[in-house]
DNA sequence: CAGGATCCCTTAGGATACTG
DNA sequence: CAGTATCCTAAGGGATCCTG
């Protein structure tokens, strides 16, 4: 599968986590599913403004394979599929929180000087 | 510049943080510099087994531009350059810690069943 | 509605050779 | 030693069309 996770031998935890999170929309999908608990395909598409059907499907499938997302199919017509986070998805979201905070701070001070506390 | 950070408008903190961390070796560089405090180019290369000179330079330059890494050049011969983390680099490392822990746990249970606590 | 299939473009990543 | 320059491949991402 194209774009699937490596699942290869990892050097460290960051490595393994990044492997699972890398992908243009995965962070947002996590965010969306965490905020709404349950979302349908079309709802997610609207939430992730600009994502193509292919990419959304692909990311969703990878995240499902990685055990982050649960996919519930209702055998109805018209078809209905609901996505939600698994417990792993939720713990990942929590682990991501500090990083999100760091990023937010970074956005705040965008443009200000960059400190240097290197060797000095 | 190829592979440079977007620095574009970010949707959320995760987005901004991921932008700065994405890159095959950045996590490891952060790790190396955090562990050793100061590293020379060749030392980093050895630490990051398999990285090419080009990629190491490229990543280092991007991280420098992002204010994560400090580059100290000693005008000697033979040339000597020392890399270290800035305070931003160190806080990023701290923000990354929970994610690293999550990834480590994930590696541990590799192969075990993937829980499903979705809609149920 | 949800998504599979296909084609195409852009980007990340890497090998190698050369230089201050 | 610490890069820079160049070339190449692989993977990520996306548009569009088609189907259960």
TrEMBL record, chains A, B:
Domain of life where this protein originates: Bacteria
UniProt-listed Gene3D superfamilies: Winged helix-like DNA-binding domain superfamily/Winged helix DNA-binding domain (1.10.10.10)
Keywords per UniProt: DNA-binding, Transcription, Transcription regulation
PROSITE patterns named among the record's database cross-references: HTH_HXLR (PS51118)
Pfam families on file: HxlR
HTH hxlR-type domain: residues covered: 12-111
Residues forming coiled coils: none
GO molecular function, one term: DNA binding
PANTHER family assigned: TRANSCRIPTIONAL REGULATOR, TRANSCRIPTIONAL REGULATOR, MARR FAMILY
Protein name in UniProt: HxlR family transcriptional regulator
Organism name: Saccharopolyspora dendranthemae
